[in-house]
Amino acid sequence: MSALRILVPIKRVIDYAVKVRVNKAQTGVETAGVKHSINPFDDLSVEEATLIREEKLGRRAPGGVEEICAFSAGPPKAQEILRTALARGADRAIHVELKEGEDLEPLSVAKLLKAVVEQQKSNLVILGKQSIDDDANQTGQMLAGLLGWPQATQACKIEFGEADAVSVTQEIDGGTQTVRAKLPMVITTDLRLNEPRFATLPKIMKAKKMPLEKKTLADYGVSGEKRLKVLKVIEPPPRQGGGKVENVDGLISKLKELGAI
């Protein structure tokens, strides 16, 4: 089996524990002064790449792992999540710096990743199935299409075989299914794939000195041109309180009163 050159794209998003608020201009959510962290699905990708190298739970590829490269496109503060990825097992990182508040659409991200894959000669891309800010769930599929590679989405288990074969168990409605493909390929991760580790202080300190290459969109020949326009963002209307009934007869009467039956 070929030695793996794994690319792990990660994104800086508003922390999952933060209650988001729509900004005053109603063009998006408020990001100023809000805690950010690595996208949870991408956190799984970093951990899985590291587990593949460490031969944990039978994940190791027969050809071994030559390199794990973390990648992110975002504002200067996106370097923080790249350092986190380095502390958790990545060998080096690439940061495409964007202006504060600038964002890329999934197709632009996929085109950017395609250029990175070709430059880095990656043969396996592991990324989160979606980011928790826009929930598009498109980038991995678009990347596989642009590269002409097989893809396995929503992975909850990854196993390696001989002759560059990879089996991926996917979560689907009502259960799981397993698909098999050959490298190179794109895999997107789902929540039950693994349990991300905490980076130890010595590794965090070491990560601060590890290679982090700075790039621009122009370096990869990619434009950040927007194809979609957000007209307005509003919060959902507040929910009305419910009521209680004493028994089934009361429930039926209430539903009739509301015109539900």
How many β-strand runs? 11
C-alpha Rg (nearest Å): 21 Å
Give a quick account of the main beta sheet: strands, pairing sense, barrel closure.
9 strands, mixed
Query: What's the total helix number?
Result: 6
CATH topology: Rossmann fold
Q: What best-fitting shape do the alpha-carbon axes yield?
A: globular
What is the structural class? Answer: alpha/beta
- Report the order of strands and helices: EEEHEHEHEHEEEEHEH
- Overall pLDDT: 89
Q: Roughly what percent helix?
A: 10-25%
CATH class: Alpha Beta
Tally of structural domains: 1
GO molecular function: electron transfer activity
Subcellular location: Mitochondrion matrix
Subunit structure: Heterodimer of an alpha and a beta subunit.
Family: Belongs to the ETF beta-subunit/FixA family.
Structure description:
The structure is a single chain. The chain is of the alpha/beta class and 261 residues long. The protein has one domain: 3-Layer(aba) Sandwich (Rossmann fold). The protein contains 6 helices and 11 strands. The strands form 2 sheets. The protein has a 9-stranded mixed sheet with strand order 9-8-7-10-6-1-4-5-11, with helices on both faces. Strands 2-3 form a two-stranded antiparallel ribbon. A hairpin with a 2-residue loop joins strand 8 and strand 9 (175-182). Helix 3 (106-120) crosses helix 4. The longest helix has 15 residues, at 40-54. The protein is globular. The model has no long low-confidence stretch (mean pLDDT 89).
